[in-house]
Amino acid sequence: MSFDWLDALWFRVVAFLVAAPVVIPGLACDGGSPAEPTPTPVSSPAASPTAGPGTPPAEGSYAFTQVAKGLKRPVFVTNAGDNSNRLFVIEKPGRIRIIKAGLLLAEPFLDMTKVVEANGNEQGLLGLAFHPDFETNGRFFVAYTAKDGANTVAEYRVASPGSDTADPTPVRVLFSIPDEYSNHNGGMLAFGPDGYLYISTGDGGSGGDPDGNGQNLNALLGKILRVDVNGAAPYAIPASNPFANRSGTRPEIWAYGLRNPWRYSFDRSTGDLWIADVGQNKYEEIDFQPAASKGGENYGWRTMEGAHCYRPSNGCSQEGLVLPVFEYTHDEGCSVTGGYVYRGKAIPALTGRYLFADYCASTLWGTTRSASGEFATSELGTVPEGISSFGEDEAGEVYFTVDDGGAVYRLTAK
Fold first, then answer.
1. Radius of gyration of the chain (CA)
2. How many domains are there within the chain?
3. What letter does residue 404 receive in the DSSP assignment?
4. CA-CA distance, 395 to 270, in Å (whole number)?
5. Taking the model in full, what pTM does it have?
6. Contacts of 236 (CB under 8 A, 6+ apart)
7. Under 8 Å between Cβ of 300 and 261
8. In 10 A of CB 318, how many CB atoms?
9. Beta carbons within 8 Å of 401's beta carbon, 6+ residues apart
10. Distance CA 303, CA 317 (A)
11. Cα–Cα dist 366/374, whole Å
12. Which of 29, 75, 293, 346 maximizes the CB count within 10 A of its CB?
């Protein structure tokens, strides 16, 4: 459920009915128009994100254990970094639930259902990030679709230090980005190692980025944004943002050329940024930004879908583009769900692997980056279908949410 769901769900229904791999010509994860150009592979071999030498797969080294059930369309799980060992789970209709001491608490941490628009399959409460000093200041941030359809980011506070409930009144709205379509809303929030808040936005929806937002540096859609929530209200622009001092651009932009970066994550050990960008008709991709980056990367959409020309359908220029480190076709899935680099202690064989899955597939993939900068991706084994998101606890152990199953699982040693 990397939030191109309606066609993703149809893909799964058809696959179930015929009990065999299905390829449906022209099926776009977002229901794109048949008139859109068919991607054609670029001719340059350098454009192919072929994995490097890598290491053997760790198949059979892990299992998964259910830690909560009975949730309504869970789309994210995370921790507050406050030494409480609680897990916080987003329910798409607009609630944040707590798993505490292994139990799912009945009372929500925050109920936003009155302000969240969740009728569209890709709309709802989508993202949650706790301030690095949450334990002392009680600040946290949410991303959601407002009743008017706007992609919204707001700040809330906990009711009291250590409380299992939050104040239902928002402190402030940071962003309210008008959005004509209901799909491609991004919605991932995370604080980077630098203490700034990173925000993902989709290209605005429909199919094929009709408004050209991905490549438009004067638009907030189709981007990863970076802002300072410790500065002036509603936020300040970090002086080191790549477009902070360039006229005709939005200074909030950190990276662009993204279609629907539903989930991204920072490696808690290295600070590297891994981005899973949901594709159009044919390709799903994993993008990478090293910790030393100064920002400003252009990941190609809508010029490229993965490492292939999209518009124009052939002969596109790759100059200045950062191509994916891994891609796969819709023969293998339909909507990528980005995860985390495993830094826990329970499954040593997975250490250092960026873990990710696909909403329509049961494959768990792992990508490694060698000291020389080469990437290698392998299939690690199977997981349930319908994974909507991954998350970490305070110790770096990895969890995932299953959409229509209403459950949260933890990866464990086998």
1. 20
2. 1
3. T
4. 16
5. 0.90
6. 227, 228, 230
7. no
8. 16
9. 71, 74, 75, 76, 77, 89, 387, 388, 389, 390, 391, 407, 408, 409
10. 8
11. 14
12. 29
| Residue carrying the six token digits 């010509």 | 25
Residue 335 has pLDDT above 90, yes or no: yes
Q: What is the pLDDT of residue 60?
A: 72
Q: How far apart are CA 295 and CA 242, in angstroms?
A: 6
What are the distances in angstroms from CA 230 to CA 100, 131, 282, 357, 380? 29, 10, 41, 34, 40
Beta strands in 167-324 (DSSP E): 172-177, 189-191, 197-201, 223-227, 253-256, 263-266, 273-277, 283-289, 304-305, 308-309
Task: Enumerate the β-bridge partners of residue 326.
Answer: 286
User: Which residue in this structure is represented by tokens 């869970």?
Assistant: 74
Inform me whether the pLDDT recorded for 201 exceeds 50: yes
Mean pLDDT along residues 241-250: 97
pLDDT in the model for residue 229: 98
- Which structural domain range is residue 60 located in? 5-413
Give the Cα separation of 38 and 25 in Å (integer): 11
Which of 323, 331, 198 has the alpha carbon at shortest distance from 257? Answer: 323
DSSP label at 47?
G
* Helix (H) / strand (E) containing 137: helix 134-137
The pLDDT value given to residue 8: 54
DSSP secondary structure code for residue 134 in this structure: H
Burial 182-211 (b: 16+ CB within 10 A, else e): bbbbbbbbbbeeeebbbbbbbbbbbbbbbb
CATH code, domain carrying 279: 2.120.10.30
Distance CA 295, CA 306 (A): 20
Q: How far apart are the first and last CA of the chain?
A: 26
Q: How confident is the model at residue 91 (pLDDT cuts 50, 70, 90)?
A: very high
Average pLDDT over residues 316-343: 98
Query: What is the predicted pLDDT for the residue at 212?
Result: 97
Nearest to 281 by CA among 5, 46, 26, 101: 26
Which pLDDT belongs to residue 5?
A: 46
Kindly report, residue by residue over 20-74, the tens digit of the pLDDT.
333 222 223 444 333 333 433 333 333 334 333 445 555 678 999 999 999 999 9
Q: Residue 23 has what pLDDT?
A: 29
Concatenating the DSSP letter of every residue in 188-211 gives -EEE-TTSPEEEEE---SSSS-TT
